[in-house]
């Protein structure tokens, strides 16, 4: 699809700042002079798309942010307006598959699982989550580094969670970003288990790798693409955009952030291209996934969505070590904290504790603390999570629960009851 096939954005108070292409999609980025101009430009462009034959596929609002997707034949256009930062984005490309609603009979109990990873202490921390929807389908998030024992454990978990009525686990796989400690296990697993699972869809929003200083991410993404092409030729691979929803019985996944939103800021590492989303379950419980979002991404999400980010379960960004901002965590105010990190580091690493460690001739130490322990302002977001209770507008409050990824933790989403194994 070329830009010439799109209607022009002719609106007062908008300034074109550039074009960015990745994943077969192209983004046109604009700034707006004020909220009124932005709202008029968003509404006017959506109307113009309808005038030239595009059908509206979906609309969404998250706080003040506005989103709409339009399709014509095999072409799709997604429009995003963020009043808080004065940004209007138009993303267009060939639609392979678009987020939407998947039908199914609701009979299984929705749960969120943080699998215990045996390789956590021996390799990069990684992260892995498995979610069961109400119809028994499973959503896998990332996976971790390519460790044989974790691959075997993940396969056993998928088999244990699938309903008896399903011959094979029915899986949708979602990726936050293409770092090896999030992606490599999936490549290994998918290469080995094509006959053992029904892979129904794969979702991600990877960047233009030419813009990354990070040298290894493109190779991991290429390995995933090759594995899917060779082993799962009929499985659709979709690119999600912020504001879109993927819905299964008992679970709606709402995309909050992708690397498109952060552009034209630079992408020094793949962490700066991480996606984030929130899963809302029937009954209202929520699980917010941050991948490895760095500070700039976290700060932007806080500005864009504000109090709409409040969630029950939080996957701490970048393994609970770096990247977060205090403002973002205060807006999310989780009841349950998932640390994609081993329990030893969660209990001793000064970054996890918000305590400045001592340094000696051997260099900086994360586990030997100054005496007396000194607060570490750069990691105040973690000390805040540990030292404060969660609160809600109805006056309820309570102590946060913290779960590292050394042991498997299963949360029942109807009542947030957690079991650690």
Question: Could you provide a short overview of the structure?
Answer:
Helix content is 24%, strand content 33%. The chain contains ten helices and 25 strands.
Descriptive overview:
This protein has 421 residues and is α+β, with helices and mostly antiparallel strands. The chain has 2 domains: 3-94, Alpha-Beta Plaits; 111-420, Metallo-beta-lactamase, Chain A, CATH 3.60.15. The chain is 24% helix and 33% strand. It contains 10 helices and 25 strands. The strands form 5 sheets. An 8-stranded mixed beta sheet has the order 12-11-10-9-8-7-24-25. β15 and β16 form a beta hairpin. α3 packs parallel to α4 (217-231). It is globular.
Topology record:
Blueprint: E1 14-22, E2 25-32, H1 35-51, E3 55-62, E4 65-72, E5 75-82, E6 87-94, E7 111-114, E8 128-132, E9 138-142, H2 148-161, E10 170-174, H3 180-192, E11 198-204, H4 217-231, E12 237-239, E13 245-248, E14 251-257, H5 259-262, E15 276-281, E16 286-289, H6 295-305, E17 313-315, H7 326-332, E18 336-339, H8 343-348, H9 350-353, E19 355-360, E20 363-375, H10 380-387, E21 390-391, E22 397-398, E23 401-404, E24 409-412, E25 417-420
Parallel strand pairs: 9-10, 10-11, 11-12, 16-17, 17-18, 18-23
Antiparallel strand pairs: 1-2, 2-6, 3-4, 4-5, 5-6, 7-8, 7-24, 8-9, 13-14, 14-15, 15-16, 19-20, 21-22, 24-25
